[in-house]
C-alpha cells in the first residue's frame, strides 16, 4: 500500500533538500557541489561499465559531461580570470572530450583519469576556503601547496565577489 508512494515521497524530500542546499550555498560551496556531482556521476559510470550496464553508463557519463560543461565551465569568468580561467576552460573541454571517447569505446581508464583530475581540482578548491577576504590578503608563500598547480582553480580570479 505504501511502497511506491513512500519511495516517491523520499525522492521528493531529497530533491527539496538538494534545492535548499543549493539556494543557501555560497558560490564557493556551489563549485564544490558541482565537483561532487561530477565525481558521483563518474563513480556510477565506472560501476555501470564494470557491470555491463551500457545504458546506465552512458547516462552517468552524460550527466558528468553536463556538470562539467554547464556547471563548472559555464561558471568561469574568463574576463577577470585571466590565464587561470582560460587554462581551466581548456581542461574542462579536454575532460568532456575524453568522457565522450570513454563512452563510445567503454574505456574505464579514461573514466578513472577524469575522476582523478576532478578529485584533485575539488581538493584544491576546498583548500582555498570560502572567505574571499582571507584569499585576497593571504601571502603567496603561505598558500596551500596544491595551489601551485597552474591548472588549479583560484577563486579570486574566477568569480567576482
Overview of this protein structure:
- The protein has a single domain (28-127, 149-161), classed as Flagellar protein FliS (Four Helix Bundle (Hemerythrin (Met), subunit A)).
- Helix 2 runs antiparallel to helix 3 and helix 2 (27-51) runs antiparallel to helix 5.
- With 161 residues, the chain is an all-alpha fold.
- The chain has helices at residues 3-24, 27-51, 54-73, 78-105, 108-128, 132-137, 155-158.
- It has seven helices and no strands.
- The longest helix has 28 residues, at 78-105.
Quick overview:
With 161 residues, this protein is mostly helical. The protein contains seven helices and no strands.
Oligomer: single chain
Radius of gyration, in Å, reads: 18 Å
Globular, elongated, flat, extended or rod-shaped: what is the shape? globular
Mean pLDDT: 78
What key phrases describe this protein's structure?
about 80% helix, disordered C terminus, mainly alpha, 7 helices, about 160 residues
Note the topology.
Blueprint: H1 3-24, H2 27-51, H3 54-73, H4 78-105, H5 108-128, H6 132-137, H7 155-158
Helix pairs in contact: 2-3, 2-5, 3-4, 4-5
Amino acid at each position: 500500500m505504501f511502497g511506491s508512494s513512500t519511495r516517491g515521497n523520499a525522492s521528493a524530500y531529497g530533491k527539496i533538500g538538494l534545492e535548499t542546499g543549493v539556494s543557501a550555498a555560497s558560490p564557493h560551496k556551489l563549485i564544490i557541489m558541482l565537483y561532487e556531482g561530477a565525481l558521483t556521476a563518474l563513480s556510477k559510470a565506472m560501476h555501470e561499465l564494470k557491470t555491463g550496464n551500457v545504458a546506465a553508463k552512458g547516462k552517468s557519463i552524460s550527466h558528468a559531461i553536463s556538470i562539467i560543461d554547464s556547471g563548472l565551465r559555464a561558471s568561469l569568468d574568463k574576463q577577470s580570470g585571466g590565464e587561470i580561467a582560460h587554462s581551466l576552460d581548456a581542461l574542462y573541454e579536454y575532460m568532456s572530450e575524453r568522457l565522450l571517447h570513454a563512452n563510445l569505446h567503454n574505456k574505464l581508464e579514461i573514466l578513472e583519469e577524469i575522476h582523478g583530475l576532478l578529485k584533485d581540482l575539488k581538493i584544491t578548491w576546498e583548500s582555498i576556503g570560502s572567505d574571499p577576504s582571507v584569499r585576497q590578503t593571504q601571502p603567496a608563500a603561505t598558500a596551500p601547496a596544491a595551489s601551485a598547480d597552474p591548472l588549479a582553480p583560484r577563486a579570486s580570479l574566477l568569480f567576482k565577489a
